[in-house]
Amino acid sequence: MPQTSDTPAFILVNPQLGENIGAAARVMGNFGLPDLRIVDPRDGWPNDKAVSMAAGSPVLDAAYLHKDFSDSIADCTRVYATTARPRGMEKPVLTARQSVAEMRGAIKAGEKVGVLFGAEKSGLPNEAVTLADAIITLPVDRSFSSLNLAQTVAVMAHEWAADEAAPDVFEPVSEAASREDLERMFEHFEEELERAGFFFPPEKTPLMKQNLRAAFIRGRWTAQEVRTFRGAVKALAVGRGKARIARED
Fold first, then answer.
1. Do 138 and 95 contact (CB within 8 A), yes or no?
2. pLDDT of the residue at 165
């Protein structure tokens, strides 16, 4: 039995397609959820299609296979059932976000949490929902409410990770341009437009400059963008390298 305690276990109850199992394992790996439990999959186990869809996710390699549903939740102290259908049971009904907030609190308090996902054709059996502490349902269109198994897992996995810090693999945005930098850019651009005869008729020049500056301000330019744009204006005006022209000004 997996012993991961700082994340919920995602439990697939009687899944049918290996592709969905693999896709679920893949997205769990994407969002840092290692505890996957599979209860009596219809097409047997191991499953080549699951392996293919998992795309190398370590979650699939570590997944635990259960023949019996009760065994899959044996170590859980709190269980949530995902379903789109009313079951006639008096249980709290939560959104994905509400349920994740509860899960985090429970896990912090030392509880083990399990989230149940039903089979593609019929969803969770009533017996499984009966053993859940609460129901999780998503805001799907009630006229077409059957969500793909792996997609449901993806929604819950994303919600779990949604309040985590953004990954640090991207370069931070450079500092915002100062008003002094912007003013110099405006003047540079307007000088070249004036030279090119853009401002015509003369009496409309102030309004045209005003409109251009307002458009630039809305862009929230960074200092790097200002430098790049001024370089582009200069290149258009006098060229670069072999294309550079001599200009007396």
1. yes
2. 64
pTM for the model: 0.74
- Using the CB atoms, write b or e for 141-162: b if 16+ within 10 Å: eeeeeebebbebbbbbbebbee
Judge contact between 95 and 139, C-beta under 8 A: yes
Residue 143 tokens, joined: 């006229």
- C-alpha–C-alpha distance, residues 115 and 102, integer Å: 12
Helix (H, G, I), strand (E, B) or coil at 160: helix
- The residues near 105 (Cβ < 8 Å, ≥ 6 apart) are none
Spatial neighbors of 228 by CB under 8 A, at least 6 apart, are none
CA distance 240 to 52: 52
Strand order in the sheet with 9-13: 64-66, 36-39, 9-13, 113-117, 78-82, 134-136, 93-94
**pLDDT, tens only, 164-216:** 766 677 777 789 999 999 999 999 999 999 999 999 999 999 999 999 999 99
Token code pair at residue 155: 């929604």
Is the distance from CB of 37 to CB of 9 less than 8 angstroms?
yes
3-state secondary structure of 125: coil
Task: Say if residue 167 is preceded by a cis peptide, omega within 30 of 0.
Answer: no
Cβ count near 121 (within 10 Å): 11
| CB-neighbour burial class of residue 205 (10 A; exposed 0-12, middle 13-18, buried 19+) | middle
Whether 175 and 225 have beta carbons less than 8 Å apart is answered as no
Specify which residues 80 forms β-bridges with. Answer: 115, 134
